[in-house]
Amino acid sequence: EGVCGVSKNGKKWYYIDKKGNKINDKLYSFVTPYHEGLAAVCIDNGSVIFVDKQGNKAIDAEFVSAEPFYDGIAVAAIYDKSRTKLMYGFIDKDGKWLSPSFYDEIYSEGDMSPFAELGVAKVKRGGKIGYVNRQMLFFDSLQTALASNAVLTNAALPEKVTSVKETSMKEASVTNVVEKPNLPFILKMDMTHGVI
Known about the structure:
This protein is mainly β. Helix content is 6%, strand content 30%. It has 1 helix and 16 strands. The strands form 6 sheets. Strands 9-10-11-12 form a 4-stranded antiparallel β-sheet, with helices on one face.
């Protein structure tokens, strides 16, 4: 995005443009590349925030860690109530948690979106590996997750798309059945078990 994070001493970081000029006067403990107009930076108190190119805080939240945005979704982590364990989830550019539950870990390959290669993100929850699609539905197996993506992206879903109750990061529940046109079956999504 035409800017690069640099440090002269490895302690304070800032961004420069292609000509080597500072893009703003902000200094950070650590920086990540800008992606989709925002960058995750570590501030002096150790928290990670997202900033725009002017150095303004772009999301009114602080995280323990965060990754760049891809297609409007970023991985972020906060501490649990005891402040002993990290809890990972997906956020949008408003800082709203998209995932209906937190995960022990969300895997991503280098500087890519966790959804990049297959359209599903590999996660760990309760010590078990699973997969989450972009609709934030959890699946126990990769095959089921990939099958759900094929069904969900085959054509536009009808108006009676599943509605998810927002439970502020607790398990969400799906209340409607989705019937996909031109398919010989009904696909019912359950946030804790995937396709039933």
